[in-house]
Design a protein that fits this description.
Elements (H helix, E strand, L loop, with lengths): L1 H35 L3 E7 L4 E7 L2 E7 L4 E2 L9 E9 L3 E10 L2 E3 L12 E3 L13 H4 L10 E9 L2 E8 L2 E3 L6 E4 L1 E10 L11 H8 L24 E5 L8 H10 L3 E5 H4 L4 H15 L3 E5 L9 E6 L7 E6 L2 H4 L32 E5 L4 H15 L10 E6 L11 H5 L22 E6 L10 H10 L3 E5 L6 E2 L2 E2 H5 L7 E5 L13 H6 L6 E7 L4 E3 L6 H14 L6 H10 L10 H7 E4 L26 E2 L4 E6 L9 E6 L9 E4 L5 E6 L4 E11 L11 E5 L3 H23 L1
Parallel strand pairs: 14-15, 14-16, 16-19, 20-21, 20-22, 22-25, 25-26, 29-35
Antiparallel strand pairs: 1-13, 2-3, 4-5, 5-10, 6-13, 7-12, 8-27, 9-10, 11-12, 17-18, 23-24, 26-28, 30-33, 31-32, 31-34, 34-35
Length: about 750
Amino acid sequence: MEEQKKLIFKKWYSLFLMIALIITSFSTISIANTNNSKEKILLTYNFESPIIKTLEIEGLIYERITLSKCMASGKIGEPLIPSKGANILLPPNSKVCNIQVIPGERQDLGDGHIIEPMGKPIPISSVKNDITPIPNEKIYNSNEFYPGKLHSTIDDYYYRGYKILVLLLHPIQYNPTTGELFYYKNLDVEIELIESGEKNDLYRSYEKDRNEIKNKVDNPENAIKYAKESKSSMDDYELLILTSDSLKDGFNSLKEAHDEGGTPTIIKTLTDVGSSDLEDIRNYIRDAYNNWGIDYVLIGGDTNIVPAPILYVYGLDEETWPYETQMPSDLYYACLDGPYNYDGDDKWGEPTDGEGGGDVDLFADVYVGRACVGDTTEVDNFVTKTISYLSRNPDDEYLSNACFVGEYLGDHGIATWGGNYLDQLINGSSDDNYTTVGISASEYNIDKLYDRDYPGNYWPSQEIVNRIEDGFHFINHLGHSSYDYNMRLVNYDVDLLTNDNLCFIYSQGCNAGGFDEEDCIAEHFNVKTTNGAFAGIWNARYGFFWSHSTDGDSQRFQREFWDAVFGENIPEIGKANHDSKEDNIPIIGRSMIRWCYYQTNLFGDPSINILDTTGNTAPNPPNKPNGPSNGIPYIKYKFSATTIDPDEDNVYYKWDWGNGEITDWIGPFNSGDIAEESYRFNEKGSYDIKVKSKDELGAETGWSDPLTIKISFSRFNSRQNTHLRLFTLLHIFFNQIF
């Protein structure tokens, strides 16, 4: 009997030890997994089959490769192989410790190919002819594949506190000696992360910032990982006007117009800043961004009043390679993260002048424009023109007029005529490996003033004067320019303009926007009189095109600007200008891209919206979605929304599930009909579900108010799996000892 009691005691004692061991094991495994785990991001990029065409350049036969949604990224003379830009949102407080790109199925494209070399960028002021692309002999005589790697790391950047890793993917590989060419149908990108412990001071946790970042990255679902914090704000403003004490009162009527139009505006001066030092001004803008929630900054003064940052760029001119220069750039006031002169020398904006010797910040946290005014008269001119445009009736006939002004550039094959470039802005283009939406010929009256088509291949200056006087909403220009010469006009000609129908000008011409020089011609268009242009974008230094190609560096920015306005629904001119830059970040190291990135300054109020002249009215914003407010994971729930379109157009809906996942446009639905969509949440949490709509012509609403749904496990559900595993182990143990 005593022996039996001892045996039972031993069994119960063993049971106690086993339970303790099991509990300890679960805890140990949990701790080990927490301490040793490294978060990973996995993304797949798919590629269509490349298109190969034969072309002749100065008697030499080459092949040109195009690959959808890719871009030429190499250096001068290297094979022109398209690459894919990737913007990847990293979680907060993380940094990259390893990047691996895993190729998918390889598709051979044969051998014997002779791929055209990258061309040399040519200043638009150049008079040289026949600058033929020359192959890099070292690469073209090599028996190794080019580029020979699957990715290049550009850098990581911040946008409003969100961290973005920018990569360049290389799905196409080419052996110049054998002519062998192949591509991968897909590339899997695996990014391994570790915790950095860093928190970016520019993270505001605003919903508008969260919506913006989702449009900039390939993995918007990661946005949900950034905490939604409640951040106190002194006041809420959208536009900061920064000027001098003597000019401040002149901007009051513009502030009032913006306030009445729904853009809360505040005026501050350099006295409020405390100095005219560049870094102090930038820090003041940063504080306004954080404390007031501003999105736009209008610099109210010429460089002698509000100084312009002078950034260093390495490039070329007509005669010399390499060539370096410094240029005025308000980009410094827009991109607020980190330093712009890390090494402390006299060259601001070098690619190693950012935090820790990395690149400088290139994503704009605020959108900046400048009124290059020097006295109260020029302030009055600028404010009068800006308010005049803001007050325009969208039905004004002249707002439907768009003019394209192209000049002879020299004998460069397809690049001989500026008109060949500007044609890509009309109805959009998919040339040169990328697609941009343009100015629609069905919605605008298109007028072409091209040397290419004009008798004698040269239009006189009176032709552009007549068009400005007649009234054109947009004028796009590609041709020779200088500080006091643009579109074959000089400063004196611009001052004589009498047009009341003000225009917006985008010019690729050289130096016309060099506002660090004395009163460049862009200033004459914008602030010297009450006529001319209400705003515009001009180059501070050389603009650049490519010989025998329309993939010019300046061209990419002009195409992307109009794509922002008409393709990405970004009508605000300051925001559209910065979007045109950011679309080119993956190729920031290509030829003159950084040069153009720095120099394309906006002369005008950055918060102005390009007026919609189509006569189409967007649908009413949808009401808050209908659906459950509570649920559990892995169960599909149905949600519904509806809206009315004033024009009775069919409507489409896009859903934001609050976890970073946003649907494509779903529809069409009849105006007023209920649209239903089902969704399953796989993780517990609180999700804000929103919906937006657009009509069949593309007019889009903002997001609706959110419906919040709380997804949670019950106490039973949350512990069920752990208890089940524990019960299984105990069951086995009991069977063994009893």
